Amino acid sequence: MTDALSELDFGDDGLVPVVAQDVDSDEVLMLAYANDEAVERTVETGRAHYYSRSRDELWEKGATSGHTQAVDSVRLDCDGDALLYRVTQEGGACHTGYRSCFYRTVEGETVGERVFDPDDVYE
Amino acid sequence: MTDALSELDFGDDGLVPVVAQDVDSDEVLMLAYANDEAVERTVETGRAHYYSRSRDELWEKGATSGHTQAVDSVRLDCDGDALLYRVTQEGGACHTGYRSCFYRTVEGETVGERVFDPDDVYE
């Protein structure tokens, strides 16, 4: 662990929210969560790891789908309770097939780009 | 409330994480939280509102500092448990004086730009 990593505040549930951002386009791709092990593995391997709250397990992004995230850098925020992964996204970040999980507005307008058919990726 | 807003999942604590992104530069500025009232006020007024977990109150960004966020659009993610505010940021988003709260890497390198002196803004 580096000095800045030791400042991370994982909160009562042991998790910090992580924003994944495309390092080339700067598009915000997704928001997920990480525990300390997920952050360590991300820093060590250069591949984005998260912690799945629904499955209650460590999760390497793209391990099943092939839609991996190569991590260019990991930033933390001022008070150390949020992270930003700057990544090169393979395929799409969203399980629905969109490049970004934030593909629609609250008015219901679709603004994102669909880049794969989820039926071809997830069985 | 619009149809998409009604899909929001505020979780057990009544909050969703919100990513604020600069609509011009696409820089990720901060991560904060919103309750239903904060989202409604944001959509109604076009000014970014959040819910402060530490102060336990609704919070209009920049109401004290002048560093407001004019909201261009509000996006929600695929499963409705995170929001993206696309904003025009006045001054800096971070109380430390940086443009973005994500101004440093986990290796301890400063990558962000300082745009104001917090001593001039907060008393």
UniProtKB/TrEMBL annotation, chains A, B:
Transmembrane intervals: none
InterPro entries attached to this UniProt entry: PRA-CH, PRib_AMP_CycHydrolase_dom, PRib_AMP_CycHydrolase_sf
Record carries keyword Zinc-finger: no
Which is an annotated GO molecular function term of this record? phosphoribosyl-AMP cyclohydrolase activity
| GO BP annotations, alphabetical order | L-histidine biosynthetic process
Give the cofactor note text. Binds 1 Mg(2+) ion per subunit. Binds 1 zinc ion per subunit.
The positions annotated for binding Mg(2+) are 77, 79, 81
Chief subcellular location: cytoplasm
- Protein name as it appears in the record: Phosphoribosyl-AMP cyclohydrolase
Q: Which organism is it from?
A: Haloarchaeobius litoreus
Gene name in the database record? hisI
